[in-house]
Specification:
Elements: E1 3-4, E2 10-11, H1 15-26, H2 34-42, H3 47-68, H4 77-85, H5 87-116, H6 126-145, H7 148-175, H8 179-182, H9 190-201, H10 220-250, H11 261-269, H12 272-296, H13 298-306, H14 325-341, H15 343-347, H16 351-372, H17 387-401, H18 405-435
Antiparallel strand pairs: 1-2
């Protein structure tokens, strides 16, 4: 039976729902093209990059598991950073997180429309593309306003459907794999492994957004670690198996199919139907990822409104459905606007860097709260003290150090703009409080 939290939201999402959205938000369209790009760096040893990135992401997700089992307010990563470092850091994390979500959604929505336009040329025209986006985001908005359980069930179903083509590919691929294609003739250099890992790492990102609904999770002390770790574990397993069958079927020719390597694999082991199935799978995978976004990211806006950083109306909860309906509508409208305007292309440069900063904030918050901890019995607790969060922090710093100067400069400017905005909001809120 669901319970109402102190924000007015219902706790109705369990382990399966959290795991499904973790997997759904991570496995998007990227995996349908990445095998060839990774193979161009590492050849038959490409699996090493997946294992390395999977290991680093699991370190980060372990930090999310510990802190998420103890801080159970709505907002996920933002809530953890706010609890550890206060309102200024919380504001930066909150704004960066939902804004990055919108940029990612706009890119995914346009990639989905571009792929569909091959079969439906009308989608190349802005008018019909606008109607298509309106239907997609409108349907997600409607379902999520009706209740978090409805949004959660939609994500579960979409996740199951999106995994069907990939599972068929893996099974058929292993039947058509040549062992010779998987044999290692030499080990890659550290620099090559590093280059491939920098490319691949962000294909493992996205699952953390599933914790944005932390205020609507049943028994977070149990659900958070089981859901987030099982979901990310499934992602690593799928990625490793997909790379293995791609290499096993196509061998050295894999690098020749950078536009659609999985379609090439499926065409070879299944036939023309296989390549069509992979294209349909890629489209539906993007559709499913968007459904997970509209479930997750509006909760960050809702949490920010509760702190006074957004208009108060965005903190409204539906009296019947117990959902943050104004925040859901607002987020979907922003998704629609950015998808149609193309503004996401100019702003996408800050997305990767912003996400790494949020990751670092969560890891640092895990370390700080662990060192201040008095009640050791509450929530999930990582072994080895702060060793795992420290390793996670080092890995994030390494990825940050490998960003292009343009990305770093854009991040600094973005943080500067947000800092000024925070000062103005705080001044406005204090002036209003003094007036009352």
């Amino acid at each position: 039976m669901s319970s109402i939290n102190n924000e007015g939201l219902r706790r109705e999402i369990g382990v399966v729902g959290l795991a499904a959205n973790t997997l759904n938000r991570t496995i998007g369209a990227g995996i349908f093209v990445l095998p060839a790009f990774v193979a161009s760096f590492l050849g038959e040893t490409s699996i090493l990059a997946y294992l390395f990135c999977g290991f680093l992401m699991m370190l980060i997700m372990l930090c999310f598991s510990e802190i998420g089992s103890k801080i159970t307010a709505t907002g996920g990563a933002y809530a953890y950073i706010h609890a550890a470092f206060g309102p200024y850091a919380g504001f930066l994390a909150n704004t960066m997180f939902w804004f990055v979500g919108i940029l990612a959604d706009a890119a995914i929505a346009n990639a989905m429309a571009d792929m569909l336009s091959i079969y439906l040329p009308l989608l190349s025209e802005i008018f019909f593309r606008a109607i298509f986006f309106l239907l997609v985001f409108g349907s997600f908005t409607f379902v999520n306003i009706l209740g978090v359980k409805h949004g959660d069930n939609m994500v579960k179903i979409n996740t199951l459907i999106k995994l069907v083509p990939l599972t068929i590919l893996i099974i058929a691929g292993f039947m058509g794999t040549s062992i010779d294609n998987l044999q290692w003739h030499s080990l890659p250099t550290i620099s090559k492994l590093g280059e491939a890992s920098i490319l691949l790492f962000f294909a493992f990102a996205g699952g953390e957004a599933s914790l944005n609904v932390s205020g609507e999770l049943k028994n977070p002390q149990k659900v958070v670690p089981l859901g987030i770790l099982s979901g990310m574990g499934a992602v690593v397993l799928f990625y490793v198996l997909i790379q293995t069958v791609s290499q096993g079927v196509l061998g050295a020719d894999l690098v020749k199919f950078k536009e659609a390597p999985l379609a090439a694999v499926a065409n070879k082991v299944i036939g023309s139907f296989g390549s069509t199935l992979m294209i349909a799978g890629a489209v539906f995978s993007m559709f499913a990822a968007l459904s997970g976004s509209v479930l997750s990211y509006p909760r960050v806006i809702f949490a920010g409104a509760n702190k006074g950083w957004m208009p108060k109306i965005m903190a409204k909860v539906h009296p019947k459905f117990a959902t943050p309906y104004v925040a859901i509508i607002t987020y979907s409208v922003l998704d629609l606007v950015f998808s149609l305007s193309g503004g996401f292309k100019q702003l996408a440069i800050i997305a990767s860097a912003s996400l790494l900063v949020v990751y670092f904030g969560v890891v640092a918050a895990t370390i700080k709260l662990r060192l201040k901890e008095t009640d050791k019995s509450k929530g999930f607790r990582l072994p080895f003290g702060v060793a795992i969060p420290v390793l996670a922090a080092i890995s994030i710093i390494w990825f940050l150090s490998n960003l292009a100067m343009k990305e770093i400069t854009s991040l600094v400017v973005f943080l500067g703009v947000l800092s000024v905005l925070y000062i103005l909001i705080e001044f406005y809120n204090k002036r209003n409080n003094n007036t009352l």
